[in-house]
Amino acid sequence: MLAVTDVINQAKIPFVIFNTGTAIVTDQSPYFVRPTYTNYTHYYPLGRYAGMQGLKKCVAVAADYAPGQDSVVAVRGRPDWGPWKRFDGASLSRRGHPNWPSERS
User: Fold this and answer.
1) pTM for the full predicted model
2) Structural contact between residues 62 and 32, judged by C-beta atoms closer than 8 angstroms
3) Could you give the C-alpha distances from 90 to 55, 57, 63, in angstroms and in order?
4) pLDDT value at position 105?
5) Neighbouring residues of 105: CB distance < 8 A, sequence distance ≥ 6
6) Contact of 44 with 67, CB cutoff 8 Å
7) Three-state SS string across the chain, please?
8) pLDDT per position as a tens digit, 54-80
């Protein structure tokens, strides 16, 4: 998607994106339109609800790419939810995994 940003901006045509979960895509061009959800919209209410229920600890594990990071940020939420006493966010990366295509011999 982001590979066509320059072309879309120069042509000044709307570009509808249905399959992106990351929030940053529509910030890249005023011509990008996303009629679907972002990962943030799913995880923000989850973090808010958990914080309002009095939970004090949270561990979030996400993929090491933009939508995964959006999810961790959303669950972390805002301090006025009754802030987490401890919040651990971890990113999982496939780098170093023997089945990752770039590392196969």
Assistant:
1) 0.66
2) no
3) 19, 14, 8
4) 41
5) none
6) no
7) CHHHHHHHHHHCCCEECCCCCCCCHHHCCCCEECCCCCHHHHHHHHHHHHHHCCCCEEEEEEECCHHHHHHHHHHHCCHHHCCCCEEEEEEECCCCCCCCHHHCC
8) 877 777 778 778 888 888 888 877 666
